[in-house]
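seq as requested:
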Amino acid sequence: MKSIRQFSLSLAKSALCLSFLIPAGYSQIEDPIPESIDRGNIVIQIEEFTQIPASAGSAPLARINHLKPAGDGSGRVFVNDLNGLLYLVSKDNASVYLDFGAMVGDLATSPGLGTGFTSFAFHPDFAANGKFYTAHMAPSGSGPADFTGPVVEAPIALQGVILEWTATNSSADTFEGTSREVLRIDLTHTIHGLQEISFNPNSQNGDSDYGMLYICVGDAGTTIQGFPDNAHRLDSVLGTILRIDPMGSNSANGQYGIPGDNPWASDGDPNTFGEIWSYGFRNPHRISWDIAGDGKMLSGDIGERNIEEVNLIEPGLDYGWNLREGTFVINPDFDQNPQNGTRDEVFALPANDESLGFTYPVAQYDHDEGQAIVSGYVYRGSAAPLLDGYFLFGDIVNGRLFSVDADSLTQGTQASIKELTLEIDGSSTTLLSLVSDSRVDLRFGYDEENELYLIEKRQGKVYKIAGAKLASSGGGEPPVVGWQKIDDLENGLTSAWTIFQEEGNFQAEPSVTVVDDPLGAGQGKVLAVNPGVPLTTSSLNMTVERTLSESQQIVDPVTESQLTTFYFKVGRPTVSGAPGEVDVTWGLAAESARSGETGLHAYGSYSVLGRYEANGIMDIRDGGSYVDLANAALNTNVYYEAWFVVDHFNNTFSQYLKGGTDFPEQTMVYSGAGYRNLTFDNLETLLIITSAGTIDAVKGKDDIYFDDFHIDVSGQNLTTPLSLGGGHAEGGKLINISTRAKVGTGDNVLIGGFIVGGNESVTVLIRAVGSELLDQGVAAGTFLADPQIQLFSGGQVIATNDNWDADDAAGVMAAGQQVAGFQLVAGSLSAGLVIDLAPGAYGAIVTGADGGTGICLVEVYEVE
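struct tokens:
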């Protein structure tokens, strides 16, 4: 461990130069990562949380940098402004907790960039000891440095300072107390200085990591200043992540401790710093830990001119800068010797790279996608469960939001990155649009409940992630929109139903038949289920089940906003002047819940469960018990319409009823019933169980009638199915839609599902836009060159178009002028058609001619 902070350059410089050898014939890589980041199927829903007061007269109005909780159980969250204020924030409120700039006296906030009050971290025992820590930039020479670069010729532009603060009252909402200096670092330039400081939230009192402070230190711009030998070495803290015990005292200055389990703390080498945890970073801007899973420590490292990195941080590893940028070679001496490679150039790894000991990013993107990574957090909150386990990060400049599966992040591989879609107040948006500027200055934050926040400096606003949904069900094809008929009984067949009859003696055998209008209600053919009459003292049941088609199943994953509606009619007859004796249960179940021994779905394996009791009262199963839906028996000789709205994400469901004198109008009779069987599998089977009871207690001996089984997997739908004279829940006119996505091949084509509601036909304009997207901000070469439209209804193609002006140019042009935001260009290869459509569900499928791929906009508008 090194104890002297400044020493000779020669040995380290020789090692650095020898490490950079570009083999003869190597040439720069023009496009390091040619594959573009695809847009994923997750939509993040955000809401405005608070506005931070302006600390400048022009953008960025508030240089807000972090949002973090106190971690003391109070739920309080804080935001720092680089210009010198620490705010206590809540919904629609921000009050000054600490006037940092006024108290420290040496805060350097100019010329922006990496200057100012950069970070803060509350000690895990803050509630008891009142201690928290800050990082800030100070003018050069404003105090004696504990660390300075080994290259003595390098300039010193700033100093980075860590302070410890002790609050007199940790629960107070304004700071009173004392501070002391922990350490001070000389920095070569005004960029890439002290970045995030943080404690590991996974550590518990008694752990070796408990109370250890991690400090991210950039390379201070020493490489671009022409002093590359000032970094990427163990006798320099530039470009490192440090780990110290801020309440210890065995450091050279006696103001902090060096943990004995740090990688180089006990190596016996006087030329290494024991404070270093890992090294080889250009600008380790952020660090965070996954609070679940395996507790990964992750960091984003802002690149030079080519690669942005997500790194999995482990002790003792070398992450490569300034010999590597991402998974590529860079010339560290590009300032003085650009003939070996400029700062804009990267090269392929050498053949012997594995022997050189570098650790590479677990995810990376190049500057075709953005300019500077901002690392975020693995989502472990409850507001957006669909995001659980995803590491969220983004690009500081353009504000694009990205995610990777945290479990997929392993050393030696690069995980696939997906772009997230952003929505606010129900409308799709981008952060660039929200800030109304050409730069976002994006940051992430988190609170005590592990909910995440988006922070932008331009307007000084904080947004909270309030939810997430899938852009399309399950991430594949969108769900079929509208009612789907499960069974057609008019053919008189029961062959689609499987019957399981318990073995036993019956006086009258159970049966499943199709009968014609048994209640005289004009219903037509219906399914008649009879439990039979037992002759034994043990209860006898009959199970009737039907497997749902693939498009009708309720599938995982689903989002909180994705609901399914199950509909049917049920009627009980009058028999010999008295109410029919029936006892029947119906529901939806997962195939995985079927008993391997009997092949049956027993009562306990149902997920969505309702019942018609022998006393004529209908009830619902809420978790472990039944709850009556009415106080008295329902009418006989009447069909009741039942709607079950299923929330498969939360494993709950609600029921609506309509019919008889009890419920002349559709009525919600129960809300939020818990699944009988808590399953996260697909619900694939519709079941009916009738109970004959025992010879001593006959539960049911008469028919019960079912008809018109339908399902809508695309949402809550409280109408009577269209085929029965109803429509979709939305009703009314066609809802105009506009969806942009990347069109692939095979299963990855673009599908735009829509519904024409009401009772009358409408005229519709459908467009698939390609080359015109150039004027809408889509880059050249990325749009779909020749889109084609196929319009489907009921599984049949009812219209097609390739080039919009080849068939009905005048009609498409006139319709576009009436409703579209921009017009198609004469001679372009975009597709378009105008067509009259009757009420119903439709799907517009967009493909590329000759297997082409690229970004396309599909639009559907109602026109006069």
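The CA atoms of residues 87 and 746 lie 52 Å apart.
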